[in-house]
Amino acid sequence: MKRFTEALYWVAIAAWAGSLWTIGFVVAPTLFGTLDDRALAGRLAGVLFDRGAWIGIGCALYILSFRFVRFGSSAFRHAVVWITLAMLALILVGKFGVQPILAGLRDQALSREIAETVFRQRFGTWHGVSSVLYVVQSVLALALVTLQRSGSR
Hints:
Shape: elongated
Mean pLDDT: 90
Number of strands: 0
Helix content: over 70%
Distance between the termini: 22 Å
Number of helices: 4
Radius of gyration: 18 Å
């Protein structure tokens, strides 16, 4: 059982980092570069980012559980735990703080593209906040993977 839980730990790190990088830096740009309908590309990207957030939440909870079961309260002395907590916090802020604001602005724009409404500037600002949160999370994922590779705690 110990081998399985450790293997799942490694899979959680790989799945989380991989989904972040793939969705944010490959799939979403491809959607906007390929589809003529930017609103459709945005909706599809939004669904993918939402699914990625749930993947991240699940992976974070497993990684933290694994670390606390294995190391007890001394897990707080490990950088992996603090990086995971920071990444989880960024997901939660994005998913339950920023994304509802963006959804509200889209709803206020009604059926028109957000770029054609008075909400464009506010949407752009909040989208920028969301993007910064995502990039910081992606960089932290790189640190998480690198720490694991080097055998650091």
